[in-house]
Fold this sequence. Notes:
This protein has helices at residues 2-17, 21-44, 48-52, 60-82, 89-115, 126-131, 133-156. The longest helix has 27 residues, at 89-115. It has seven helices and no strands. It is mainly α. The N and C termini lie far apart (51 Å).
Amino acid sequence: MSGWVFRSLKNVLDEDLEMSTRELKWGIYGGVAGGVIFGAMMGMMGMLPMIGSMVGQPTAVAGFVVHMANSAIIGAGFAFVLGRFVSGTRSGLGSGLVYGGAWWILGPLTFMPLFMGMGFGVNWNAAAAVAMLPSLIGHLMYGGILGLVYTWLRHHDVAPVLATAG
């Protein structure tokens, strides 16, 4: 009995760890697409210098570069964590919205204050969350675009055909 359980667990882990570079690339492309839109919104709201200050460069350009790097990395994370659950437009959009919402909690409510020396959990209260509702909208937009682009690429990208000598 225990041998069957361990073999089943190994099969699940092997399946979960097998991911093609194409899937990661789709996640990165989706993350960049969502990041451009969210970054433009952040630029209009004057938030990019604050993002840049996380790396000691409180400028809009530095903030946009940091934001886009994060967007690409987080997009790859989407492919790794949720990509296998995406089967169509609805699941791609739904997964992306959930992922974007999760990153709102992880990003501005958790990691950003930590990186800026404010401490852990300082934004975990209703007042801070309400003040960051525009950021929630941006993160949901990012996630939705990420999920839709990932889905589109998944269904339209074709594997390269290898030519062989005949």
